[in-house]
Amino acid sequence: MAILASLPHEILHAIFSGVKITDLASLRLTCHAFHELISGNRILFKDVYLQILDEPPRVKKNGEDWAWEIELQRLVKLERIIGFDTVDAKKPHVQFVRDVVGSYTETADARNSKNIALISKFFRDPRDQVAFLYQSRIWARARQAVVPITPTPPFEDGQASAQLHCLYGVPVPRHMGFIRHLPYARSIVYDLRNHSDASLWGPYRDDPVLTVDWEKMEAIMMILAHSLRLFTDRTKGRFKPVWNVPFKGVSPDSFVPISLKRYQQPAPPVDARDPYNISGTWFRVVCFLDYQELFRYNFADDDPGPGVPRPPLDTTEAVRLITMELHVTDIEEPGADDDQGMPVVSFKGKSKAMHTTFDPDATSFVRGTVRTTKKGDVRWTTFSVYVGETRWSSEGVQVGGVRSSRGVLGFWSDIRRNREGPAGPTAFWKVSNEFSEELSKDHHLHLHQHQHQHYLHHQHHHHHHNHAHHGHNETGAESNGDEHSEEQD
């Protein structure tokens, strides 16, 4: 030890920067010389950190300071929690795990991330998936249906777990009972009490600062992921799987554009003032219930009361895939309720259903804004315009932050914001900085046509019994059977 301690500090630094974090603490206690060398050695802690994790973008670009030693201590604590043997031992730490994992996704390298590789490894064990990803009220209610004494998690624990599940982003394996949990996700998404002015008709809590409600986001993700998986299964792989790699695309700048074959229009010029990278081609998925079923679910029985969820909803929703071509139209200063360091960017464009066989030219127009909330969430607001009339709106949050490739999860609703609906889940994500009609043709799908026509029949029938809901068709079509637009925002 005396020989080692006598080595020049440069050599000791090189040796110590390659040891395990926990060994640094042991080395510090070994002798006075090592204690002096290690304690407060920011350069050493930085070098150890960068052996394991990505250099945070703010440090790399702006030279900002970083609490290297504290972050290493948090990593040690995270590894210790992950190492616990049982789910019950892990669960109480879900908020801490959310905080650390969230910081790793926020600071991940956009292309080849050590952060993402590390947390992906942590969540390979099914015990960690159960302990941290499946502890929201959705999962608790499903367990209570089987074992009534199952406790409901504290609200913030449920929010933390739901956020981790959204960041993880992969549909739960079938063997873990995912299908049994879907009705409880639907009971959140299709409960019209969850769509109101208080939450801006989006996936937010009922508060004035637009706090994201991660259990709503989780429910949206579960329903849409299930529908996308069905599309993949039924097309025998022609529709490629999405959301199938843990933690993929949940960091800022993770979007990587593809080049569209035979693109008909040149790539739009990059507006350096648009930090959100809006202009280009986006894919969108939308789910919705038959309106009569939605109405019965919400109004046929007595209201369960404030804070009491509606019963599980075991049904099958219709699903639509849409392409959107968007371009920036204006960039303005942030409003009073926005992050003052980020602008408000307006856009407009067109949308087209990808699997409309009876009217392949059916399109609608879309406009909206992107802004950053005071809490740092990227908020998307969109409006669908049908024959000159704004018909649908949506509110969503971009998972992973600015320019993430995971995209936006949110709710769509009628522009009139009627308490009787309709409303449902939607998601969209960017695929290219270019514009191309070929994109729709290459992915043309002929699915759910019978279900779609069946839905129109019910809407037409309902029109004759309830004129007040004429035109409330989530695909953008009139209730009289005029299926002219598949877009609803």
Automatic annotation (TrEMBL):
Q: Record's superkingdom?
A: Eukaryota
Write down the InterPro entries for this protein, in alphabetical order: F-box-like_dom_sf, F-box_dom
- The residue ranges crossing the membrane are none
Q: Which residues form the F-box domain?
A: 1-48
**Biased composition, class Basic residues, residue ranges:** 443-470
The ranges of region (Disordered) come to 440-489
Query: Under which name does UniProt file this protein?
Result: F-box domain-containing protein
Origin species, per record, is Amorphotheca resinae ATCC 22711
